[in-house]
Amino acid sequence: MSQKYATLSIGDKTYQLPLIEGTRGDKAIDIRTLLKQTGYITLDSGYMNTGACTSSITYLDGAKGVLDYRGYAIEDLAEKCTFTEVAYLILHGELPTFDALETFKHDMRRFALLHEDMIHFFDHFPPNASPMSILSTTVNSLHNYYPEMDSESDPYGGITVTAARLLAKTRTIAAFSYKKSIGHPLVYPSPKLNYCENFLNMMFDRPNLPYEIKPQFVSALNKLLILHADHEQNCSTSTVRLVGSSGANLYASISAGICALWGPLHGGANQAVIEMLEAIQRDGRDHKKYINKAKDKNDPFRLSGFGHRVYKTFDPRATIIKKACNDIIAEMEINDPLLDIALELEHHASNDDYFISRNLYPNVDFYSGIIYRAMGIPTDMFTVMFALGRLPGWIAQWTEMQEDRENSRIGRPRQIYSGHTRRKFSPMNER
Ligand code: CMC
After folding, report:
1. Whose CA is nearest to atom 42 of ligand 1?
2. Domains of the chain, each with CATH number or no CATH
3. pTM above 0.70?
4. Hey, which of 358, 382, 390 would you mutate to test ligand 1's pocket, going by the most ligand atoms within 8 Å of its Cβ?
5. Closest CA to 384 of 242, 258, 297, 296
6. What is the pLDDT of residues 150-175, one digit of tens each?
């Protein structure tokens, strides 16, 4: 195959840089030899134009609103799969056979408990501790209890077992952190329940008030987790890869990813959306005021749940979530005024030049919170829900990086220094 090149001219010299094309037509200029050849680096704050790796996990086309995991359309996966099947697909590259899925589920059942010593962790956070801080801390500490990858029983060098362990235990940690925050006794995972049923049961079952697991909520939760399961090199996934590139263990890398997800520009947007909708409600549904604030360059306020770095026509996840949201509200006969406010806000923004000209549409976080509210999940747990969904992606991306020996260098961006030139030091008594 003939290699194609881009030609770069600097002064009177020209340099050839290889062109690379992905299996779905992504195009890149390979600048790996740029510094060596030219003495120049590239400057790309926010990594708007920088590919940090090659990856075979997720494909997305932001111009066309396409999202595929391992070659399968998100629309099919969200409609026809459970989260456990999609987690397996993302981790292993293929949809599971019946037997493989049973083994994966069995692993998750046997790993769902936390070491009892870890239960004490939850007692020592202050009463209003953020569930995201509890989650990242506790996931990080899993390394102390389960340090080694179980390579003997696992052909994938331990990652299959470790992935099942992380998925199962993180779900338990999330539910326990909620129970502790409201001062209720913990509900332990049940081997009789599937992944999503188990989570809802651990969250909402009480000794004096048994929880009825509603199939509509189980189905909606499966869908939401699937839609969050991976999203190529976003902020938290890049963090997982960057931390992992130093040789840090999987738990530490995932814990760092949870922290990156926390921010309101990333996963924290789902909580910020509901807080924004509540503020609009308190303000007498004055949408204009909030739209004008978002447009005002002197005001840091942004419409949470709007805009995306990569999607420039629509976010396919948002389309699926909006429909799921309308369905569940109608089916369960829930009356949530925040849904009406969200619809009105979307209507106003989508007819406003500011949002149209900048391609700002609702993203995955705009309607997800309304579904979580319908299930009874409190607002400060929303980003934890995003983290539960994103786990398979983080684990698969971390593993892919470890296996790509040729390209798995420690992540270490460069900079253009803009500080002082070398200065003469003067001792304290001369300053
Ligand atoms: N409200 C108002 N203006 C916005 C918004 C918004 N939500 N998003 C972008 N803009 C404006 C921005 O001010 C800029 O305007 P101008 O060109 O006049 O300077 C223009 O649109 C481009 O924005 P940007 O900040 O350069 O875009 P970005 O790619 O760096 O940021 C984003 C992407 C998602 C961080 C941003 O759209 C945003 O802050 N959205 C709100 C937070 C949010 O919903 N985040 C969740 C993203 S989806 C879940 C996930 O995967 O993390």
Report:
1. 265
2. 5-51 (2.20.28.60), 73-261 (1.10.580.10), 269-375 (1.10.230.10)
3. yes
4. 358
5. 258
6. 555 555 556 788 899 999 999 999 99
